[in-house]
Design a protein that fits this description.
Oligomer: single chain
Number of domains: 3
Number of strands: 8
Low-confidence stretches: 247-251, 254-261, 344-385
Distance between the termini: 52 Å
Structural class: alpha+beta
Strand order of the largest sheet: 5-4-3-8
Strand content: 5-15%
Largest sheet: 4 strands, mixed
Radius of gyration: 29 Å
Mean pLDDT: 81
Length: 385
């Protein structure tokens, strides 16, 4: 919003930004109207009906909106809730007076409420002008209004709503790209406070250890590393209590071994990438593509296992019985990979052989090559860095 000191150009830019937000809200309204019309049409179609309309529309909505099926269905359910439970919000989207962020905040904040309570909350929000507040302020207003509405309309509903919310506890992960993963957890407020207090103490201990070892990490990096190490720490404690001695260390994060029991993450890697001759990405099962640079950083601490794949399909057709233990250096990894090339026997009926590792396994081999002596290969590929 422009202030009194803004130049005419700045005032025009601010006004243009507000107009753009109103247009986005109106586009959202058009999306909702279209989704509702499609749902009603499917519900009236013989053989489908209201009970099966959502399932019938799932694939077509995902394809048309270029979304995953889950997100597409979520958009449809939001549209139905806007029509049935938040009609003033839907109308506000249509005339551009309620923006998309505010409508999403209302939808999310009342997701566990009954239709009656949701309607009362919307009435209170609009009466106070809350539909124009920033999402954080609006979320706080909604939380307060929910309790007031439930006390008035549905005594005892708060406990039921909170029970529904507790049943939605979950942990989700999603790929962020660049070899990173985001995680989102939903837990009770008391669990979150207790977890954060314990995490604060573990981070203080890790900071002391970092200072003693000369490790440099920011507070955010240290906190992320400690949090990622917690499942391994717990398994290590359980194993120690049971009298076992699992592999691992008490370190955490990127500057030490993951503590706890040993688990494998399988990364399929082309041999040329592992040798530094290509930058073709590899593939981490359960995540997706990894860059060549990321893979080569992991190789010294990875167990290596040779895999033969079909030239045309890339499907594995043979797997070496033994894996090479972590080599420790890039040079040792190079030597181990070249030993695999010289020492491997071809799979019966296949003219192609490729190698990889576990956690890095090869993905495909594009052409047949004769065996190369170790000496010649090392002259040809002097370094993997």
């Amino acid at each position: 919003m422009a202030d009194l000191l803004s130049t005419p150009r700045e005032t025009a830019l601010w006004a243009g930004l507000e107009t753009a937000q109103a247009c986005i809200a109106q586009a959202k309204h058009a999306e909702v109207v279209a989704l509702l019309a499609l749902h009603e049409q499917a519900a009236r179609t013989p053989g489908i009906g209201a009970a099966n309309a959502e399932r019938h529309l799932r694939l077509d909505l995902a394809g048309t909106m270029r979304l995953g099926q889950g997100r597409a269905v979520g958009r449809l359910r939001d549209a139905i809730r806007l029509r049935d439970e938040l009609p003033r919000t839907l109308a506000g989207l249509g005339d551009g007076t309620v923006w998309v962020e505010q409508s999403q905040t209302l939808l999310y904040g009342t997701r566990n409420c009954s239709p009656a309570v949701t309607g009362e909350v919307e009435r209170r929000v609009f009466a106070a002008g809350g539909q124009s507040e920033c999402p954080a302020d609006l979320a706080r207003r909604i939380a307060h209004d929910i309790l007031a509405a439930e006390a008035m309309l549905e005594p005892g509903a708060t406990a039921e709503r909170q029970q529904r919310a507790r049943q939605a506890r979950s942990v989700r992960s999603w790929a962020l790209g660049d070899g990173m993963v985001g995680q989102w957890s939903t837990c009770t407020a008391e669990q979150a406070v207790a977890r954060d207090l314990a995490l604060d103490e573990l981070c203080r201990q890790a900071r002391t250890a970092d200072e003693a070892a000369g490790v440099e990490r920011t507070a955010d990096q240290r906190r992320a590393d400690v949090l990622a190490s917690l499942p391994g720490r717990l398994l290590l404690m359980q194993a120690a209590a049971a009298g076992h001695a699992p592999a691992g260390s008490a370190a955490d994060g990127l500057d030490g071994e993951q503590p706890g029991l040993s688990f494998e993450a399988l990364i399929h890697v082309p041999m040329a990438t592992a040798l530094g001759l290509s930058d073709e990405p590899g593939y981490l099962q359960g995540y997706g593509p990894l860059s060549a640079a990321h893979i080569r950083r992991l190789l010294p601490s990875a167990r290596l296992r040779k895999v033969a794949v079909d030239e045309r399909t890339g499907q594995p057709i043979d797997l070496a019985h033994r894996a090479v233990m972590p080599c420790g250096t890039h040079e040792a990894v190079r030597d181990a990979l070249l030993d695999m090339i010289d020492g491997g026997t071809r799979h019966p009926g296949s003219s192609n052989r490729t190698a990889g590792n576990s956690p890095s396994n090869s993905k495909r081999n594009d052409s047949a090559e004769p065996a190369v002596s170790q000496a010649a290969a090392r002259r040809k590929f002097p370094s993997m860095k």
